[in-house]
């Protein structure tokens, strides 16, 4: 039987630590690494990150936009990054933040979560702001193929709160409702469900029920100002489910692979001390 994403992620977090490293080939990072701002630069950059880290971190998260900005050649690089990272043992979370009406969401599901697609990843990020049910085809396709989805609940950027903290007639915030839907999708799954939420490490989770029986992707550590220490304060008893996601503050240590490894190991070690 095919393993579930929740099972694979749970195992990877125990074996490799909970860190997720973002592959975000910003133009400024390409320049800093002495690479051209084109598809060949993105390929050298991403290959270096994969070779340095895919054998040791639980999850690599390529940000699709940084590949898309180089057109079809950038997407071809993304396809190779997915294949190489997975064959080196990392889980790949495609950061595409897709969302649309359900019939179109099925096409995104076919692109990112169906093994017949060259972009198929272990999981994809999705925006529920066309209504959580519009994401159903993504969730069903993920579960049918042993893959996962990370649904945005509270994003790390300060602008997010005007939408995500708005309250409905039942007095619940939009983000609380998203967390409720994800909790329902993961009900009964063990050791944890395959549907995660994104909850920024930069936020205050006071009064928020984070028990979703699934992973909590926590971007915002490093370049956006949160520290590993803040994670304990934000997530409290939910820490064992937290997957801190870090891009620039690790990528900025490159291009030497040993320096990338050093930067990732140092954060991973700090994170592992939180869960004790
Ligand atoms: O889904 C995400 O990964 C994400 C959600 C969120 O709320 N905030 C957020 O920063 N991200 C992504 O996480 C990464 C953060 O990068 P750094 O700030 O460089 O660590 C970027 O790829 C963002 O697109």
Automatic annotation (TrEMBL):
<keyword id="KW-0210">Decarboxylase</keyword>
<dbReference type="InterPro" id="IPR011995">
    <property type="entry name" value="OMPdecase_type-2"/>
</dbReference>
<comment type="similarity">
    <text>Belongs to the OMP decarboxylase family. Type 2 subfamily.</text>
</comment>
<dbReference type="Pfam" id="PF00215">
    <property type="entry name" value="OMPdecase"/>
</dbReference>
<feature type="active site" description="Proton donor">
    <location>
        <position position="97"/>
    </location>
</feature>
<dbReference type="InterPro" id="IPR001754">
    <property type="entry name" value="OMPdeCOase_dom"/>
</dbReference>
<dbReference type="GO" id="GO:0004590">
    <property type="term" value="F:orotidine-5'-phosphate decarboxylase activity"/>
</dbReference>
<dbReference type="InterPro" id="IPR011060">
    <property type="entry name" value="RibuloseP-bd_barrel"/>
</dbReference>
<dbReference type="InterPro" id="IPR013785">
    <property type="entry name" value="Aldolase_TIM"/>
</dbReference>
<keyword id="KW-0456">Lyase</keyword>
<feature type="domain" description="Orotidine 5'-phosphate decarboxylase">
    <location>
        <begin position="18"/>
        <end position="263"/>
    </location>
</feature>
<keyword id="KW-0665">Pyrimidine biosynthesis</keyword>
<dbReference type="GO" id="GO:0044205">
    <property type="term" value="P:'de novo' UMP biosynthetic process"/>
</dbReference>
<dbReference type="GO" id="GO:0006207">
    <property type="term" value="P:'de novo' pyrimidine nucleobase biosynthetic process"/>
</dbReference>
<comment type="pathway">
    <text>Pyrimidine metabolism; UMP biosynthesis via de novo pathway; UMP from orotate: step 2/2.</text>
</comment>
<dbReference type="InterPro" id="IPR018089">
    <property type="entry name" value="OMPdecase_AS"/>
</dbReference>
<protein>
    <recommendedName>
        <fullName>Orotidine 5'-phosphate decarboxylase</fullName>
        <ecNumber>4.1.1.23</ecNumber>
    </recommendedName>
</protein>
């Amino acid at each position: 039987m095919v393993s579930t994403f929740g099972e694979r992620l749970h195992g990877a977090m125990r074996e490799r630590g909970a860190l997720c490293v973002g592959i975000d080939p910003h133009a400024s990072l390409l320049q800093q690494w002495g690479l051209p701002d084109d598809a060949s630069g993105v390929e050298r950059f991403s290959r270096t990150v994969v070779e340095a880290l895919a054998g040791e971190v639980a999850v690599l998260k390529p940000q699709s936009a940084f590949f898309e900005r180089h057109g079809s050649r950038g997407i071809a690089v993304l396809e190779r990054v997915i294949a190489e990272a997975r064959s080196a043992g990392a889980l790949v979370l495609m950061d595409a933040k897709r969302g649309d009406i359900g019939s179109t969401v099925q096409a995104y599901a076919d692109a990112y979560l169906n093994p017949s697609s060259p972009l198929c990843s272990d999981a994809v990020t999705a925006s529920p702001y066309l209504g959580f049910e519009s994401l159903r085809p993504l969730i069903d396709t993920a579960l049918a193929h042993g893959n996962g989805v990370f649904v945005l609940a509270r994003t790390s950027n300060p602008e997010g709160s005007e939408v995500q903290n708005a309250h409905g007639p039942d007095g619940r915030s939009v983000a609380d409702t998203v967390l409720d839907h994800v909790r329902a999708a993961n009900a009964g799954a063990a050791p944890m469900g395959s549907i995660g939420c994104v909850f920024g490490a930069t936020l205050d989770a006071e009064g928020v029920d984070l028990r979703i029986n699934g992973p909590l992707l926590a971007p915002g550590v490093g370049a956006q100002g949160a520290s590993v220490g803040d994670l304990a304060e934000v997530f409290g008893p939910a820490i064992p489910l937290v997957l801190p996601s870090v891009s620039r503050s690790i990528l900025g240590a490159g291009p030497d692979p040993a320096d990338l490894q050093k930067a990732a190991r140092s954060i991973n070690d700090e994170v592992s001390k939180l869960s004790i």
